[in-house]
Structure prediction request, 172 residues.
Amino acid sequence: MELNSILGNFAAFLTTVSFLPQAIKTIKSKNTKQLSLPMYLMFVSGVFLWICYGIMNNQMPIIIGNIITFILAGIILAYKLKDVKS
Amino acid sequence: MELNSILGNFAAFLTTVSFLPQAIKTIKSKNTKQLSLPMYLMFVSGVFLWICYGIMNNQMPIIIGNIITFILAGIILAYKLKDVKS
Prediction:
């Protein structure tokens, strides 16, 4: 595997998996006061568009990576929305 | 401009700019207790690798988008590191 695709795959892995520790922290603490609602609304929407882009261009890495990020960031957004409503 | 590049550009815009409201919230509150340090360490590292990837492949959109994200997420990480040390 070329350096180029190693770099791209590792960058994608880090930016995807990075939302896992925040999701775990949010699930445990159930406290989202310092998390920005506009951030997660925009980010989750953007990730959803990346999934659509990946499907339109038949690019599995973009589809899979962004589905994982969508789920993790979506969990955080759900807790934030619940917090805002209560 | 084709639907395809509109979708990709808009997705990139949302996932990039989404860190602006979190950076503003963090600068104002100076409180990062609920933000995950491992998330921002991994995410900022991943975005840095995307910048290297963009340079290696001469892709300006990837370079510019990720430089903006690197600055915004880097600000949040700096506040988190300061909080952790104090």
